[in-house]
Specification:
Elements (H helix, E strand, L loop, with lengths): L4 E9 L3 E10 L4 E10 L14 H20 L4 E5 L1 H5 L3 H12 L3 E3 L2 H15 L7 E6 L4 E7 L2 E8 L3 H8 L7 H14 L1 H7 L6 E5 L1 H13 L12 E3 H13 L3 H5 L12 H15 L3 E5 L3 H17 L7 H13 L4 H17 L1 H4 L3 H13 L11 H10 L8 H12 L18 H14 L1 H5 L6 H8 L19 H10 L38 H13 L12 H30 L1
Helix pairs in contact: 1-3, 4-12, 5-11, 6-11, 9-11, 14-16, 14-22, 16-18, 17-18, 18-19, 21-22, 23-24
Length: about 600
């Protein structure tokens, strides 16, 4: 429905502070803010290099989230909560996530630094007229600083560095008193940490540089106060000049204690203890990138969450049967980086989605899970980029540790698991990665790894019988996944789809549907040879075992007139010599004992 109105609430769970915004949002992205709230929680306080959330910090977080939820409920606004650096890096983050889920009924999405930058970009485009311009976006948070280059909503470059106001304060200014040596060490560290951004932006033309979030906005407020200008709220679209920033840095460094810094005009009293690290980060960004000015944006992550939520809801309303643009772009970018085979992936994707659609009434999954299956179908074979052996496990690793824009950490974990089970074993509790999923997510992976991925297994390197095996499997009765087992072992739709999928046309077929069907011989028990893909790992024992089986088959032995005959005989000779050396190595210890 065009310009439909939704009331939504977004919570930004940051390292230093939590933010809430409640707004009426139109489907075209325009929104009216109804209420805003903020509380300094210091979730990263007491953490050793942002690795552990303290009990006191989690208690403060629970109190704030409880209040935010009550406020959202009073305005009938569904809540979407997104956590950033502090939760993302904490080793015990599952304790907080489970506690919030159990006590408050909220589901917190943990996003990567790259996804965080993309969401901030969405918010900034609602506050400033920068859609048509090439921009460099900088957002200084408590635990990390995000950088993004983009134009017309498209992300061209993104990076997240572990330099934040809270993190650097704990490292260099934990005593609260400023020491000149600590300031110089902090500046030197920042200059080195910002090198990746300098290299990335060296050949990139930028029309405008934008800064967002608390540290930069508070810096702008202090600059305005130094000019004698008083503003209500945070300044939007203000220009921070290089010379004004340099003067402010001197003022901040001159205030040696926290009490003295609280007296600086325009400062947020809650940031007095971390503002030194904040302005030094901004100072070094100006220095290394040779910036003259930066434009401020009052909209950032929480407003980006609102717009992203509306886009996802609009996609569900339209019953979109394909990945959204940003997700699709990130999936195919990863696939291309790992030199995937487009025609093969297209065939697998089409077959798996066809099975998913035919089984909708049985598995009861929706469009979101369909996207997970589509992404896993495209990426299931990228493990070959590392090694032919155990490539399904390599696929899991590559997907799990890649920055996929548009996906949360939870969604990436689900996709990685579905891709991991495209061959070999089905999901088991002893496998790496699978036990870490929540129970309901394990059920999603089990569902997508049994019935729908029969399409993936049909066209996998293993035999075509895998399709029937995958289709005939059903979730155990103890599982809560709504996929009942039929009396015959599998629904007829699955059996028919699987059997039809294994029928491959001849190479002379006129079907040019951009797939690999004509290249696949499902009757072969082993993977067809791919001359374009080099063998990245060579294990003589496994290779020669296969040659022994090859030699024992008379039908597969090349004729003496074949060009392969010499290679065949050479391999047999090597095999015999290796067997002889193995025998000698086993006998030699006994011979030495006799002597």
């Amino acid at each position: 429905m065009p310009n439909s109105l939704r009331r939504l609430a977004a919570i930004d769970i940051g390292t230093n502070s939590f933010h809430l915004v409640i707004a009426d949002v139109k489907s075209n992205g325009k929104f009216t803010v109804l209420s805003k709230d903020k509380e300094v929680v210091r979730l990263g306080e007491g953490m050793t290099d942002m690795k552990h959330l303290s009990e006191e910090a989690m208690d403060r977080a629970m109190g704030t989230l409880h209040r935010f939820k009550q406020l959202a409920q009073s305005m009938n606004a569904p809540v979407r909560a997104v956590a950033t650096s502090a939760v993302r890096e904490a080793l015990n983050r599952d304790v907080l996530l489970e506690r919030v889920r159990r006590e408050l009924g909220l589901e917190i999405e943990v996003v990567s630094g790259f996804e965080e930058a993309r969401l901030i970009y969405l918010g900034v485009m609602q506050a400033l007229p920068v859609y048509q311009k090439s921009i460099l976006l900088t957002d200084i948070g408590g635990g990390s600083t995000e950088f993004l280059a983009g134009q017309q909503g498209a992300v061209q470059y993104v990076n997240s560095l572990k330099i934040g106001a809270v993190r650097l304060t704990r490292r260099y200014f934990s005593s609260g008193t400023i020491k000149p040596k600590a300031v110089e060490e902090c500046r030197a560290y920042l200059a080195g940490a910002l090198n990746p951004i300098v290299r990335a932006m060296k050949q990139r033309a930028v029309d405008v540089v934008v800064g967002s979030s608390g540290t930069i906005l508070n810096t702008a407020s202090m600059i305005l106060a130094a000019r004698g200008t008083v503003t209500d709220g945070d300044p939007n679209a203000m220009s921070i000049k290089r010379q004004d920033l340099a003067a402010l840095v001197e003022t901040v460094l001159a205030a040696k204690t926290v009490e003295q810094r609280r007296a600086i005009p325009g400062i947020d009293p809650g940031r007095a203890d971390i503002i030194v690290a904040g302005v030094l980060i901004l100072e070094q960004i100006f220095a290394v990138l040779k910036l003259r000015e930066m434009i401020t944006s009052v909209y950032a992550l929480r407003e980006g969450i609102l717009l992203d939520t509306v886009q996802k809801l609009a996609g569900e309303d339209r019953m979109v049967d394909h990945l959204t643009d940003i997700r699709k772009a990130s999936i195919y970018h990863l696939a291309e980086s790992c030199h995937y085979e487009p025609r093969h992936s297209a065939t697998v994707r089409r077959t798996a989605l066809s099975l998913f659609d035919q089984l909708r009434e049985i598995h009861g999954l929706g469009g979101t899970e369909r996207e997970y299956l589509e992404a896993a179908s495209v990426l299931h074979d990228i493990g070959y980029h590392i090694s032919h052996s155990q490539h399904h496990k390599h696929s899991y690793y590559l997907i799990r540790h890649s920055e996929l824009l548009g996906f949360t950490d939870r969604e990436i974990e689900i996709i990685a698991n579905v891709a991991r089970y495209h061959r070999k074993s089905h999901p088991k509790s002893k496998h790496e990665g699978f036990p870490a999923l929540a129970e309901r997510d394990q059920q999603v992976v089990q569902a997508l790894s049994t019935d729908s991925t029969a399409g993936i297994r049909t066209f996998s390197p293993r035999s075509a019988s895998n399709a029937g095996a995958a289709a005939s499997r059903s979730i155990s009765p103890s599982s809560a996944t709504p996929i009942p087992a039929s009396s015959s072992g599998a629904p007829s739709a699955v059996r028919n789809s699987s059997s039809s999928s294994t029928k491959c046309p001849s190479r002379s077929s006129s079907n040019a549907d951009n797939d690999r069907t004509s290249l696949i011989r499902p009757s072969r028990p082993s993977r067809p040879f791919r001359p374009s893909r080099p063998f990245r790992s060579f294990r003589p024992s496994r290779s020669f075992r296969s040659f022994r089986s090859f030699r024992s088959s008379r039908s597969s032995r090349p004729s003496p007139s074949s060009p392969k005959f010499r290679i065949f005989e050479f391999c047999i000779t090597i095999d015999k010599r290796l067997s002889w050396l193995t025998s000698i190595s086993r006998i030699s210890p006994h011979m030495s004992e006799r002597k």
